[in-house]
């Protein structure tokens, strides 16, 4: 299944590296992320400050590491919320069909009609800014897409003979959904989840850039961009570093999703 | 036409000699077709029979020079009217395909373009191969559809394939295959997906082709009953090899190879009351794990010490009846 | 017949709404099965034959209650299961009626192992403590000709014939009274087809199973059925004991169907004259008035076009030979 799949391996390598940096920040960063080295403001890369410093003289590399932590936290929380809620709604709508399906899907259509960011802004307006609320907002944003993917999988599979066979055996609907259908939908959900992860990273950056997402003093790539942009001409490093981190992370997850899809396609031919 | 084709000095319409088509890597090839020989005369129907994996479909595709990806013809000859096809360049082959020989498949839906009307698809063949004008092509298309039994062919020209039933699609495919009046029609399981009454229509149509148009048909099928009703001569394949070849009546009256006998014992019939069948034990060997010697030996109820030694030769035991089995070592070769 | 039959179906009808357009408004309805009645005793096999669109699969799915019938009665072991709720079906009926599907590539969950597929019915119906189920599963696997060593394999690792054996094992593990087999051998090679048919016959003898065997292949039905029903556009055309149906059919459709079946012939045998039916099957959503077969029947008369023939016993003849035709063929 994994043989020569460059998309998947490169994607995993990029994301793995970023994850490693984020994890390392739990125990070690070259400098304290909030320590201001006033005499070293807006410096370029050096042996002491690997990616230079920002306008307060804070070490950019340390903050990028820690920002990775925030990105992963927001991303995985949002995807988890999206997956759980989306799959649940999609599964019930798809398996039950008829009016239940209609009802759920019209609500999802309603949600889809709002641009994602506007919806996230609404959630934040209600719940207030903050790291977890940002994740919540982004998670809600991804529910309609994931529920549609889950629903189409459930609809397609519920008419398959093996599901019919399970019904004739007397398997209960919940067990049919969990034991028989879900394992066959997981692959497409994995693809959807990795796309959603990439989107979540972007949304987090966007919200934080607007000042609505992750709040100080927690470092976030989006907010680092916002804070550094005024000094871009004097010191591009403090802007480029978080920008590059966002780009790499998003690219990595897109490559993973493509890779997973390819891998599953190949298997599909054998079946 | 019964039994022996009249000997003529002219070459047979189709002559396949020692055809080998292999798949996979060179060091461990999958021998899908492993030395198949037979001939086919004008107006005659020869059936290639066998179970899935015996190499009958790959033989058909090899004759058309349409071996699926991963496969290649590694040896043998395919002669159409004396002309060797295997080493023809692509352009020449394209001219022959459709013009002199055509093919119909089990599932006509996948061989018809869903976005083109029936009329457009037949007309395209006619214009490309015969150079007809648009008007001529439309008229001829309608004639062809009438020949395959559509009462109102003009109306059908504007229909899209998905609007037709399975039987209608198969008739359209046959009309397309007939559009250039080919000498050879290769039909790969043409009635397998169809209901019996529709199957009967299609078989009647194929019989008509050989009788009226002198088309030769290579019928590829697993269905012995269909063979019995349609073919003049039968070639039984097993694991890439011809195991028996005989005129149809002879084969069904006096099958010699234990595999043929076993297959016939498996056939259900509407004239036989509720009964216990006598199935062949085991399954067809995987093409990449063929047994040594006779490939049927592991499943053969009459296998003896000699069978696993080497693949038995195909010998002629009587006129036109060949068998590949050590139980019948005699013959004139 | 002594005592009540295992299965007693009467007046079974199944209608599907035909939906069209963006809003999926019901445009009309399609009667997939119309007024079908028959009985089946323990240990016997009922063959159901018909072409695609004849409603034979719908009939099967109504009897296993994958579909709720629109009307009619399905008496099974003395109770009417036609209108029984899902909970009641699970508690009382499901374990006694099992189904085998046509395509062994789609009837087994690709993510489950051989063991979990065959064990599932036992688990669902809480038969035996978990640790004892293994013995029973192994015994059933061996009985259908599968090596229990393979119990951790998944369906794609088996051949078509082996997969159909798995499906049979799953159907048998609960020791049901009735097994409904919908084209169980149609997707298989000739030699494998014979193996599966023989297995089904042996199992019937050993376990006293009743089968409803659905097939478009009349010769296969001939090999296994005691009684045969011929369906056309969802209606019963003819019902008779198998020996009688194949020899003394009385319905023109049965005649056409039988004459179309290709046969292996040896030197001596001659085939009966072939009757090629003209045209295609009518649209099931818009069936012809009168006898539904009249548009293709070579003997149709005026009465056939106007009056629906009822299914009736043929006057003099054998018990259980019923036919829906105004002008039955004689002899």
Give structural notes.
The complex is a heterotrimer of chains A (271), B (333) and C (331). By secondary structure, chain A is an all-alpha fold. Chain A has a single domain, classed as MetI-like (MetI-like fold), CATH 1.10.3720. Chain A is 74% helix and 0% strand. Chain A has nine helices and no strands. Chain A is elongated. The C terminus of chain A is likely disordered. By secondary structure, chain B is an alpha/beta fold. Chain B has a domain of 231 residues: Rossmann fold, CATH 3.40.50. Chain B has an eight-stranded mixed beta sheet with strand order 6-7-8-3-9-10-12-11, with helices on both faces. Chain B has a four-stranded antiparallel beta sheet with strand order 2-1-4-5, with helices on one face. In chain B, strand 1 and strand 2 form a beta hairpin. In chain B, helix 5 crosses helix 7. Chain B is globular, with a radius of gyration of 21 Å. Chain C has a domain of 73 residues. Chain C contains ten helices and twelve strands. An eight-stranded mixed beta sheet of chain C has the order 6-7-8-3-9-10-12-11, with helices on both faces. In chain C, strands 2-1-4-5 form a four-stranded antiparallel beta sheet. In chain C, a hairpin with an 8-residue loop joins strand 11 and strand 12. The longest helix of chain C is centred in the middle third of the chain and has 18 residues. At the A-C interface, helix 6 and helix 7 of A face strand 6 and helix 3 of C.
